[in-house]
Design brief:
homodimer, alpha+beta, nine-stranded antiparallel β-sheet, globular
């Protein structure tokens, strides 16, 4: 294959699409983006931009026509259209059948069970009344976590139910009910698999959440785990991508519970927020790795050259309107602080407006600088 | 200043412009490119592309209208138009008066002399007959180097004249005649100066030329110099940018002659081929540094985190037509090899089609991988 033959259609033009295009641009790969927002982060550097809804069958079909290779930067797309494009001969990675499993958190959990991947105990329900019935009859114990099977993301569509009095707040849609596991750590391992079946895993990252927004506040890589747990996390993630038979990059989000068990929580079949740091801290970024994987190129080294901390730059509470960035200059003054702005035209509370990756010669040094960035860098309206 | 206010007009859309946009894209800075080739490397990722000749006064004036800030990726532009845009209130870095000095190798040499910057002895001539006369009268000794005052680049417009019999091949245009200095090493130091007068220097790089094409074949960073010579190279480059009072990134190309003296050879007032490696090997790339400098942001750290070798990917001898890349897969298999393809639609002998930066934990390790890349990576038609 010749580099000039590498053209790529991307469903979605958010920050993940944008950073994928930044990686593709190094090889002068032409990238075509479909997104409903004309001012989406990826539009500015895409080779061509198509304005349209990636959830719509006809729109995706039209977008995909004549494109040899297609990928996604968001799961919530018309997989029906991707199945059809695949049938017509397009190369689609991740494959639509993988997306069908991952888009449905119920199917995802069943997949974990079938493949002996460790995961929190769960049951599937179709409605609120069904769950209420199970609680009343004593077959379902509180507390538990309810996750919408489809449509939820970035913490939306997930809730913890602790008391019977709160059952009225249950989502009245098909959902997964999962035992509430006491969590020691939230981890993510990004793995990749190329068209030849070659696999690679990045070092595990540890996520620290903003409790209010239920969004990752910062992540630390490598995670503070002992060698055996690092190895187990890696093996589990590799087992997952092999079981899925998937091509591309896969983020395997895991819990380390209080009992010391590692549980697979959720999958994202694409470059992921927890892998932003790889751009500056690893030999091969997750974005380049995704391109290598889907085009059948050799996977790159996942070794880190520096410990790294990633801080999401979220819209401030109450912020709404045109974004104003604070502390930008001060952060640029710190060596090893890399700022990424996504170019979103509107700030909203907790919206991901950018991120900073902070490198240090030690993790402690990186963490210290990261705290400075967290206090200094703000986006208001 | 707000990141969203950072818009930039760039004269020239070659690989330097492309990599400048790649850096700007991280901050979601909108970049507008003017180039005579619609399929130039930067066109694909520019926010807007204007098809036109950057040497033409009217074209540059029209391009610059309404743009707050303008820079260049090639010196050979209409500085008359830039003077006019500056007079109209646009921020132009590097300033047109700096470009006027640098575009004329005669003025450059006189500038070195006036500012006590060490440089090879020279005289200026207007025509071939004038030079011949000086040789005949014994006032000018052979061998010498003739450099066209304007219009030469990438080794073109430069020739060594060793014998009286070759005087007929002299360029019959205004030129610099320079003593032929026996050269130990060719070096380049990239320095930056921001609008606040803050300066920074990158570690010196050592260039190895392809003797046939007179183009850099690979460069090695850090250069193999003793500590004192490293320091002298840095001080000389910083003295140069301060003397020029220039804002932006400046490549100061130097010779270390056989006598052990450091001589300034030529300047390039922009990101430079000898700084490509900074993308992967330094905390701040030369491209980001240029943006920081011209927008008055704090300069970034120039520290290297790995020794690096850069290999230009040149069109093969006799190659002419649509490019075919060889050895791409094999090179991607080597950890720490970063390939950049410029996306030029036509290969010509010795045309710069891309480059590879090779990192290693030691310079020897990087050099070994670089040799593999040099033997493996080829572009033919």
């Amino acid at each position: 294959m010749q580099p000039r033959d590498l053209e790529l259609g991307i469903l979605g033009g958010g920050q993940l699409g944008k950073m994928l295009i930044q990686a593709a641009s190094r090889w002068h790969m032409r990238c075509h983006v479909l997104d409903p927002a004309a001012d989406c982060p990826a539009a500015d550097i895409a080779s061509t931009f198509t304005h349209g809804t990636f959830r719509d069958y006809e729109t995706v079909l039209r977008f995909g026509e004549g494109k040899r290779q297609i990928t996604i930067e968001i799961e919530d797309v018309s997989t029906e259209a991707l199945h059809e494009l695949q049938a017509q001969g397009a190369i689609v990675h991740p494959a639509p059948d993988v997306l069908d499993i991952i888009k449905d958190k119920g199917a995802q959990k069943q997949f974990f069970k079938e493949h002996n991947l460790p995961t929190a105990t769960f049951r599937l329900f179709d409605s609120r009344s069904e769950i209420e019935g199970a609680v009343r009859s004593g077959k379902l114990k509180l507390p538990f976590v309810q996750k919408l099977r489809t449509g939820g993301y970035d913490g939306r569509g997930v809730q913890i139910v602790r008391k019977t009095a709160n059952l009225g707040a249950l989502f009245d849609e098909p959902s997964v009910i999962e035992e509430l596991v006491p969590i020691q750590k939230e981890l993510s391992v990004i793995v990749a698999r190329n068209t030849h079946g070659e696999v690679a895993a990045y070092p595990a990252v540890e996520m620290v959440f903003n409790p209010r927004a239920n969004l990752v506040e910062y992540l630390v890589c490598p995670a503070s785990l002992d060698e055996a747990m690092h190895r187990l996390a890696e093996v589990t993630a590799l087992k997952t991508i092999k079981a899925l038979n998937m091509v591309g990059v896969l983020a395997v989000e895991m819990f380390l519970d209080d009992a010391g068990d590692l549980l697979v929580n959720e999958l994202a079949p694409r470059p992921h927020n927890s892998g932003h740091h790889t751009i500056e801290s690893c030999i091969t970024s997750q974005y380049e790795q995704h391109l290598r994987a889907i085009f059948g190129l050799p996977l790159g080294s996942t070794a880190m050259h520096s410990p790294a901390v990633m801080v999401n730059l979220l819209g401030a509470e109450g912020a709404s309107g045109s974004p104003v960035y604070h502390g930008w200059n001060e952060c640029l003054r710190k060596p090893g602080v890399y700022l990424h702005l996504y170019g979103k035209q509107e700030v909203r509370p907790f919206r991901k407006m950018g991120h900073a990756t902070i490198l240090g010669s030690t993790l402690d040094e990186a963490l210290e600088k990261a705290k400075f960035v967290q206090y200094t860098l703000k986006v208001t309206a």
